[in-house]
Amino acid sequence: MKKGLPAALVLALALLSGCAARATGEDAPPLCWPEQPVTLYVSSDLHWQPRAQAAGNDLLPEMVWLEEIIDALMDAAARDKPAALVLCGDLTNGGTLEEHEALSARLGAAEAAGVNIFVTMGNHDMDRSVPPGTLKRLYGAFGWAEALSADGGSMSYLAPVTDGLWLLSLDCNVYGEKESKLAGTVSAETLAWVEDCLERAAEAGVMVVPFSHHNLMVHTVDGDGRNYNIDGGDALEDLLLSYGVPLYLSGHRHNSFLVEAERDGRKLIEAVTDMPAAYPHRYTAITLQPDGTADYAVPSLDVDGWAARTGRSEPELLRFAEQSGARARARLEDTAARVTERMDAAQADRAEMERFYLDFYACYQARTLWREGDRLRADPGLALWRAHAGENIYARWMPWILEHQSDDAPVQTLGPFR
């Protein structure tokens, strides 16, 4: 949908879109799906920062090419023309005004090239206390300007993408802190506003896809699994399920995976998306099909191809995938050696554990656990890690992932939801 249409006209178009209005509340079936395929590209955790600052990042040296990685993401969206590019927060790394001004200008250039961008804020975006009013001014063209509704107690908004699809941007950041927290929050007032939005969508026969920076569901085993999540998320999850909302988008984890909740025959899938600067430099592509399914994929950015097309000559860019993959492998080898050398195990056992760690993580990064899970679960290296589960998080995390996410393929069909 072309941005800038009056809210009243948007609502009128939705009512005429061929999607019949549906019952609301406890007895609601899934909200209407678009009559034509609609594709969303999703990314998160851009962590924009000046190149000079990124040059000192030893943990993730690819950050020095962050401008080029983000340009490759925008180029993919401009070339493929999804209905929307959804950015799930942590747009900047330090949350400074300088970073926000630089990134919003870059996003503005992408919009001018035809990319339809919607954003929400993450904890890193709030770390330097840039006021919400300033953030809305800088990023207003990326959601707030065409909002059908805005929450008075947060930076959340409801905005149209097409006649049959609205995005619900949820600002779950903790305000009033010197630095925002890893965990998010959602107030009772914001929940009430969300329900009003869902009622409005149900009356118009429109599908709603919510997105936030913080995670809605438990995705991993670190701590109690909720330090990256939304406090009060259970109530939000129940509300979304009660209205038949099928998809939820988030980031924050710097990796991609799917988690599902189901109640009373209603299914809600949360798709967490990657940090584009982290190997293997993925984004998420979701195409909503008229039959009530969704095509899901997590392709890697073609930084090499973008560099060649735009006339760049740096070898680091023209062989970006190869060199980034080699650096990622070296970091994994270093981590495996450092972790196992501190464990109370024989040298031969530590060698086996290192081998298994590298094998497991290669499958995890490539999203091939769905194919390799049975082999990895039978590997004697896993048994050695289990025997040392009390010594570090990896010994708990790898078995948990194999149990809960081993069917998470990089290309699959989600649903049917109706």
From TrEMBL:
The molecular function GO annotations come to: hydrolase activity; metal ion binding
The signal peptide annotation in the UniProt record is 1-23
Q: Which residues form a coiled coil?
A: none
Q: Where does the source fall among the domains of life?
A: Bacteria
Q: Name one Pfam family in it.
A: Metallophos
Transmembrane portions of the chain: none
Which segments constitute the Calcineurin-like phosphoesterase domain?
40-255
Q: Supply the InterPro entries for this chain.
A: Calcineurin-like_PHP, CNP_phosphodiesterase-III, Metallo-depent_PP-like
Keywords from the UniProt entry: Hydrolase, Iron, Metal-binding, Signal
Describe the family membership recorded for this protein in Swiss-Prot or TrEMBL. Answer: Belongs to the cyclic nucleotide phosphodiesterase class-III family.
Name of the protein in its database record:
Metallophosphoesterase
Query: What organism does the UniProt record list as the source?
Result: Lawsonibacter faecis
